[in-house]
Amino acid sequence: MSDQRVRAERGVVLAIYLEWLTGQASSDDMRKWLDRAQATRAVSSAESTLLLRELHGHLTSPDLAPQWRALGGHAVFNPDGDRIHIHTGNGEIMTALAAFAGVTVTAAVLPFLQSIAAQAGQQAFEVARATTRRMIGRKGAPQIHSGETQIFVEETAAGLRFSVPASLPDAALAALVATDLEALAMPAEKGRTVTIYWDEESEQWRRHVADR
Q1: In which element (H, E) is residue 194 found?
Q2: CA 21, CA 149: separation in Å to the nearest integer?
Q3: Measuring CA to CA, how many Å separate 58 from each of 86, 147, 169, 185?
Q4: How far apart are CA 112 and CA 188, in angstroms?
Q5: Axis crossing angle, helix 46-59 with helix 13-21, rounded to the nearest 10
Q6: Cβ atoms within 10 A of the Cβ of 97, count?
């Protein structure tokens, strides 16, 4: 059993979120883990709250099977008696937005990178690409392989933006495993935005900091 799955069974919200993204969990697994997260009060941090909101957005998608959508009504998403509401366009919630220069998906950037790197670390590059398509959703997925549209994953509040390379080449996925992701996705000072991008010439992940 992987360390990530062990943490999910303990109710760690980040681990539950990553298990969902990588498609490793069944609906029964998810219900059990969400029960544990609620019982252990593992949902009180700001990061956990954000991740639960994003996960709730996934689970309430009309494209999911009924057993998955039923999880959207779990009490962990309703800690104070008020259900979490998902509003299209809210910068803190997972939603695909049509952008003039491409497609932007708002999400927590570091967990997104960690979920891809976890697959790439096992040399499961196609699985990593599938995870990325699942994360981005239907509006952005076709462009991952075509390269016709630039795709960004953006965490607006933190000023982080990840530029998804066209086709997600194996070299870029492998480099994620060897990269300090926490340093790569470290927010800049207030009022500045960090853009993480793949430098094809040097075959390295880089970050560009600019005023918002």
Answers
A1: strand 192-199
A2: 23
A3: 10, 25, 26, 23
A4: 18
A5: 30
A6: 15
How do the pLDDT tens digits run along the chain, 212 residues long?
Answer: 667 788 889 988 877 877 776 677 899 999 999 999 888 876 566 667 777 877 887 788 787 888 998 998 998 887 654 433 333 333 333 332 223 234 566 667 888 888 888 878 777 777 777 777 776 664 444 444 444 456 778 888 888 888 887 777 889 989 998 999 999 999 888 888 888 988 888 899 999 888 76
Partnered with residue 151 across adjacent β-strands are 103, 164
Chain position carrying tokens 């039923």 = 70
CA distance 134 to 205: 22
